[in-house]
Amino acid sequence: MVYTCEQIKRAETAAVEMGMNWLRLMENAGSAAAKEIRSSYQLEGKRIVIVCGKGNNGGDGYVIARKLLENSAHIRVISVEPPTTDSAKEMLAKAVTLGIRPVDFGNYETLCCQYINDADLIVDAIFGTGFSGAAGGIYAAAISAINYSSAPVVAVDVPSGISGDKGTVDGLCVKADITVTFAAYKPCHLLFPSCNYCGRVIPATIGMPDAAFAGLEPAMRVVSNEYVSGLLPQRAVDCHKGICGTAGLFVGNKGYSGAAVIAGKAAVKSGAGIVNMIIPESIYTIVGTSLPEAVCTVLDGDSTGCIHFNDTERIKEALSSCTAGLLGCGLGQSYHVKHAVEEIMQSISIPLVIDADGINVLADRIDLIRQYKNDVIITPHPKEASRLLGCTVSDIQNDRLGSAKRLCSITGAVAVLKGAKTIISAPSGKTYVVTDGNPGMATAGTGDMLAGMTAAFLAQGMSAENAAVCACKLHALSGDLAVCDTSVLSLTPTDMINALSDIYCRMYLKK
Predict the structure, then answer these.
(1) How far apart are alpha carbons 281 and 267 in whole angstroms?
(2) Hey, which of 246, 263, 297, 313 would disulfide with 274, CB 3.0 to 4.6 Å?
(3) What gap in Å lies between CA 383 and CA 189, rounded to an integer?
(4) Could you count the other beta carbons within 10 Å of the beta carbon of residue 364?
(5) What is the tens place of the pLDDT at every residue in 42-73?
(6) CA distances from 213 to 25, 210, 227 (A)
(7) Within a 10 A sphere around the Cβ of 178, how many other Cβ atoms?
(8) For 103, left (φ over 0), alpha (ψ -120 to 50), or beta?
(9) Cα 190 from chain centroid?
């Protein structure tokens, strides 16, 4: 589970009301971090520098100093500013009784920078989850010194300089090798670009009862293999293709046959009993040859071979006989496509996946998505999302979590915001994040593959929320498996589709 910083504060308050106390929480946090540090690094005889801020994160640092002193390490504590919270003050006093005397960064900056530079290991306990904005003054100087050092860095809860609830980095930020976070992941650990500064994130328990989180809907849920395995459709021994779902794919146009082929192959491979490719005659030969498992509804098109609005009735008729549909991949954005898509949205009532050009032609008719008579899944990449939300791509990327939730809110659809760490936001109020995947998937056609997979799951009777979650997770896993035999430079959607059989086999073995 992933909780916002405010939610963690509420859970901590609830834990205290249940019998914990603030000092015990801080002691547990520092002890948990020290334990992870001991298990990750050889400490005996090493020079360990712990850089503490003035708040409770600094208090955690003073606890860590006490605990690591037991490992025959040379402990040096640097105080960027003296502690201001009662708990941090008490933890500093306990450290002093053991002979640990912090060096004040403000008065001895040169000396402190030398200590940091000479360290074998640095612990960053400057800012906690409450930080936002950009670090300045002596804090910026301390962060710069940490980043300049060649020693490994362990961040306490979040790397200093990062806002815990967003993926943005507004100024100087500690570049950690390991981040030990308490109670649960925070959004910054999983969103870009902030997750690039976190290194390996280790969640550590600090004794908070599960009941402390009662009533708190996680900001995001990390999609696990086990969760997806439990959602995948089951087939009866006496089933047949007619009851395994029919996916109708209104995809492809002249010059864009590849999008149709990739989406169709992914739908076939993902269990749809029948895949009906609704395509113009100009690409029928290519699609039919490449995808013999599918049936095709062939549209007349216009004199140039492109989709024409006169095809609309045939498209609606074909989709109406399906259990789920897909609109978008490779359709283009002509007037004729826009007319057809708008008519479809007002006339049929099967569950739909809307991708790519389906999104683009509806960007100014979001009402048609919201008012649609059945479930809808939209799968925009950041540029498409920016069109729907009327903002810039930078706005989307600077707040991917918030953007996904807004997409869901304004459309009423399950919103899949694609990209590194794909986010799925559902009308149920649940939001999911897929942490799998790799840079090789940043290539044309992977989105078409995802759309085809999603439509196939939807056609088999899965809810829109579950279909989107399963498709995104399995799509990412296929990329991670396929890249092992290729590389991030040469990975293709075809490689990923070929890996799906192995991925599905592994998932069903977990059931």
Answers:
(1) 21
(2) 246
(3) 24
(4) 12
(5) 999 999 999 999 999 999 999 999 999 988 88
(6) 15, 6, 20
(7) 19
(8) beta
(9) 6
